[in-house]
Q: What sequence folds into this?
């Protein structure tokens, strides 16, 4: 590996020396006739690199455009000097590995030299004017040709280091941004046209406009990246919180199997009511989630209440009445689950206003809470309970109708009864499959959490993408 690096390094030094020598040979007084223009193009290159934004496929910068203008307006030697200074300043800031630095120096000396020579050879004998259509077409072609040369030199070096296919790099890295390169070439021609018509002053003004545009694009992309990071972090945090709630449900199942399965049954019954009255899929999911978590506050119960079979004392009943508030408080700590917390808080309110914890009546109770209240009441009556013997579905339906309008929402009661009678809706408390099916919430949470926290593969070093101005 070290031998390969040494060979590549020596080849880059040789190429750099050859290109530098050629620049000295072809350099002439006419190429340095406009130091103001050379200084302006160098400033554009350096500031553009300073404001550059690296995306997944390209580097947003005006430096390549400025170097091409230097090829066309000054000549190969000044263009190569601007390229070398640009790479050197970048090296001070970014401190690339020495082999990469050598490759960049060789590349940014060679392609400006080649492009400048092509312009000189083609335009010189025919004495093309810089405002002619032929000269504009020549610069357009040189821009694209040197762009390809730039990519091949950088990517080819990387492919030799990593033993990868240059053709594959070209297909996956260069071709996707070809439209952007063509647009930037047209922009270079437009800048050249303005300079030819108006002079250096207009070029300065246009430069300020282009750099301002690049700066605004950079800030926009940076803010979007930060917003996306915040969104992902928020999702991860919420997913972690929900993972804790799922773990609490699992723990509650171990501590009190009956209560956990009761929660799963309530989730199924309540979401079926939501579906039957035509609520959206998102609203059904909200009801289902609230049903799963409606008794999460029972963690405050002592074992004497959770596993007791005797009638509750007044003191124990006061503890029981705390569980909607306790559960809502826990769930409200999860970003985006405020609605779920509101539903949990109100699932023991009554239509006549005699429920708890707030004693609110009728329509003031969230509809989802009213659905959960019906499902809760039915499952308590029909499943094995800590203080009641189960009754038949028919007896439970009769009781639902008896308290309809006072304790429960009468219209929703009839919807639920219709589901029981027409579809044979049932939850099998003793069947682990039914419980796991309703606890599918945990699977959805894992889908959020696991991709976010899976270790990322180590990035494969990539060649520096071609520098272009954001279009």
A:
């Amino acid at each position: 590996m070290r031998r390969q690096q040494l060979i590549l390094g020596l080849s880059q030094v040789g190429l750099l020396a050859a290109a530098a020598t050629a620049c000295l040979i072809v350099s002439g007084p006419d190429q340095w006739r406009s130091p103001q223009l050379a200084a302006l193009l160098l400033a554009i290159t350096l500031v553009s690199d300073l404001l550059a934004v690296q995306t997944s496929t390209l580097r947003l910068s005006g430096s390549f455009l400025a170097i091409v203008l230097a090829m066309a307006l000054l000549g190969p030697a000044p263009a190569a000097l601007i390229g070398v200074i640009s790479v050197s300043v970048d090296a001070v800031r970014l401190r690339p590995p020495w082999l990469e630095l050598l490759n960049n120096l060789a590349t940014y000396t060679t392609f400006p030299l080649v492009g400048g020579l092509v312009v000189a050879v083609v335009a010189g004998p025919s004495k093309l004017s810089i405002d002619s259509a032929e000269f504009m077409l020549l610069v357009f072609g040189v821009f694209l040709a040197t762009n390809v040369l730039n990519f091949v030199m950088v990517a080819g070096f990387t492919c030799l280091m990593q033993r990868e296919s240059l053709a594959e790099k070209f297909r996956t890295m260069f071709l996707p941004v070809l439209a952007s390169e063509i647009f930037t070439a047209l922009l270079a021609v437009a800048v050249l046209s303005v300079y030819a018509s108006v002079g250096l002053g207009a070029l300065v003004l246009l430069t300020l406009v282009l750099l301002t545009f690049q700066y605004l694009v950079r800030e926009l992309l940076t803010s979007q990246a930060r917003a996306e990071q915040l969104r992902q972090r928020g999702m991860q945090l919420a997913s972690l919180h929900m993972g804790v709630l799922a773990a609490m449900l699992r723990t509650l199942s171990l501590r009190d199997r009956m209560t956990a399965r009761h929660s799963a049954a309530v989730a199924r019954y309540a979401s079926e009511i939501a579906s039957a009255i035509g609520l959206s899929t998102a609203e059904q999911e909200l009801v289902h989630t609230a049903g799963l978590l409606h008794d999460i506050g029972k963690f405050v119960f002592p074992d004497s209440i959770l596993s007791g079979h005797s009638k509750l004392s007044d003191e124990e009943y006061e503890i029981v009445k705390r569980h909607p508030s306790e559960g809502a408080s826990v769930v409200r700590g999860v970003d985006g689950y405020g609605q779920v917390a509101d539903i949990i808080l109100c699932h023991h309110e009554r239509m006549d206003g005699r429920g708890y914890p707030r004693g609110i009546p009728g329509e003031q109770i969230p509809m989802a809470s009213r659905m959960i209240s019906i499902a809760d009441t039915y499952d308590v009556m029909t499943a094995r309970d800590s203080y009641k013997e189960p009754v038949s579905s028919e007896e439970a339906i009769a009781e639902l109708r008896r308290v309809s309008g006072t304790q429960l929402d009468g219209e929703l009661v009839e919807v639920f009864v219709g589901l029981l009678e027409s579809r044979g809706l049932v939850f099998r408390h003793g069947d682990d499959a039914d419980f796991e099916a309703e606890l599918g919430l945990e699977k959805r949470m894992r889908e959020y959490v696991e991709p976010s926290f899976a270790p990322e593969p180590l990035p494969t070093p990539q060649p520096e993408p071609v520098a272009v101005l954001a279009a």
Q: What stands out?
A: The radius of gyration is 36 Å.
